[in-house]
Amino acid sequence: MKMLWCWRCRQEMPMLEADEFALVHQALMKGMVVVESEARQRGRVLNPMQLDGLIDRHHQPVLEMYRLLTGLVETNPNAVWHHVVDQYGPPCPQCHKPLRTPKARFCVACGFGKEDVTPDSLPLLQRWPELFRSG
């Protein structure tokens, strides 16, 4: 789990790494048994949320797994699907918010790279890889 700026929520949110998102997907496919097993492995006691409605109960394993992994109580299953690290790009060298997608051509938050954008421009990461090298 990694805290990143979420463009939809307009705040930093816990984002799932690929292996954690795989657990969420597995919970959707196989149900609460996966969540209960993961909770046992982590030495946690699972106290399921009380959700109303058929759709809520159908998505309860997803919401419970997200809560188990992040500690955040989320009641909207759609939010879980966009809180995934791999959907975002590298941090902007200027404002440090993640680019909205891995193929972003400029930073929407501060406009970095916008002056260079043409219809055939490459993503920032390909145009200026030296800016995105870590360490």
Helices and strands in order:
Blueprint: E1 2-6, E2 11-15, H1 18-30, H2 32-41, H3 54-70, H4 77-81, H5 124-127
Helix pairs in contact: 1-2, 1-3, 2-3
Could you please describe the fold and organization of this structure?
This protein has 135 residues and is mainly alpha-helical. It has two domains: 84 residues, no CATH class; 46 residues, no CATH class. It is built from five helices and two strands. A two-stranded antiparallel ribbon has the order 1-2. A hairpin with a 4-residue loop joins strand 1 and strand 2. The longest helix has 17 residues. The chain is elongated. The model has no long low-confidence stretch (mean pLDDT 92).
What are the main properties of this structure?
about 140 residues, mainly alpha, 2 domains, two-stranded antiparallel ribbon, 5 helices, 2 strands
The total of beta strands comes to 2
Main β-sheet description: 2 strands, antiparallel
Mean pLDDT: 92
Query: How many structural domains are formed by the residues?
Result: 2
Low-pLDDT segments: none
Indicate the structural class: mainly alpha
Beta content comes to 5-15%
Question: How widely separated are the two ends?
Answer: 20 Å
Order of SSEs, N→C? EEHHHHH
Overall geometric form: elongated
